[in-house]
Write a structure and sequence with these properties.
It is a single chain. The protein is built from five helices and 13 strands. It is an alpha+beta fold. It folds into two domains: 5-182, 2-Layer Sandwich (BirA Bifunctional Protein, domain 2), CATH 3.30.930.10; 190-224, no CATH class. A hairpin with a 1-residue loop joins β7 (109-121) and β8. α2 (77-91) packs across α4 and α2 crosses α5 (173-182). The protein starts with a strand and ends in a 6-residue tail after the last strand. The structure holds biotin. Biotin (BTN) is lined by residues 25-27, 48, 51-54, 57, 59, 66-68, 103, 113-115, 130-132. The site of biotin has 20 residues, from α1, β4, β7 and β8.
């Protein structure tokens, strides 16, 4: 691993930003060392050799955007993180959609994924919010990159996300959920959850997905859903 240095690009006055050229995974690293980092620290990597996705998947990046944030307070990050990305992209000139819980899609293709890991030792210690944004599409996945949409620098994207994140953590949960629902590509659609069809009805105050199958309601905390009418995973 090469050394980690303070990044002097003015990303955000609210965050202390570190940079590394290559690392296994910014999430893995911060999970192990969060105690050394203050609240609102971020670690940006030019390259990850063992990037991780949700459900122990591999997250491949090739000159893409990879960074993780450390928060020492608990927020509804499952909702706030994708919404911060959504609002940042809107400010930067295009409108993607949020696939519950926290993927960002554009033209029904995945643009970004988020891996949130909460650390507890007796009590809550920290949340690590890992954000991966494709700059280019990956052939083997149903993905799209920023470069297919608009010419934007990584620095502008990261600083806009941090600004939106900082605004959102000061809002009440209800406002955040309502804003999230506006950009959801899931609500009111028929989805498949564990091989069964459901209609997605809404999002609870904790960020859980509310489903209905012929009057039988189900609340899903955090899982994977697919769409009936398209092959979006
Ligand atoms: C997913 O879609 O499954 C989540 C992907 C999250 C990838 C990011 S890249 C930065 C951070 N470090 C990791 O190892 N993973 C997250």
């Amino acid at each position: 691993m090469t050394s980690i240095y303070l990044d002097n690009y003015p990303y955000s006055k609210y965050f202390k930003c570190y940079h590394v050229s290559e690392i296994d995974s910014t999430n893995t690293f911060l999970k192990a060392t969060h105690i050394l980092f203050q609240d609102h620290s971020i670690l940006i990597a030019d390259n990850q050799t063992n990037g991780r996705g949700r459900f122990d998947r591999v997250w491949k990046s090739d000159n893409d955007i990879c960074f993780s944030i450390v928060f020492k307070k608990h927020y509804i990050n499952q909702i706030i993180a994708p919404l911060a990305l959504e609002l940042a992209f809107i400010r930067l000139g295009f409108v993607p959609a949020i696939k519950w819980p926290n993927d960002i899609y554009f033209n029904e293709k995945k643009l970004s994924g988020i891996l949130i890991e909460d650390i507890y030792e007796d009590k809550f210690q920290a949340s690590i919010i890992g954000i991966g944004i494709n700059m280019t599409s990956k052939k083997e996945f149903n993905s799209i990159g920023i470069n297919d949409i608009k010419k934007l620098s990584k620095e502008i994207i990261i600083s806009t996300i941090l600004e939106e994140y900082e605004k959102l953590i000061h809002l009440d949960d209800n406002t955040i959920i309502n804003e999230y629902i506006k950009y959801s590509m899931v609500i009111n659609r028929t989805i498949i959850y564990h091989d069964k069809e459901y209609k997605a009805l809404g999002i609870t105050k904790d960020g859980h997905l509310l489903l209905d199958n012929n009057g039988i309601k189900k609340e899903v905390q955090c899982d994977e859903i697919t769409f009936k009418e398209a092959i979006i995973k």
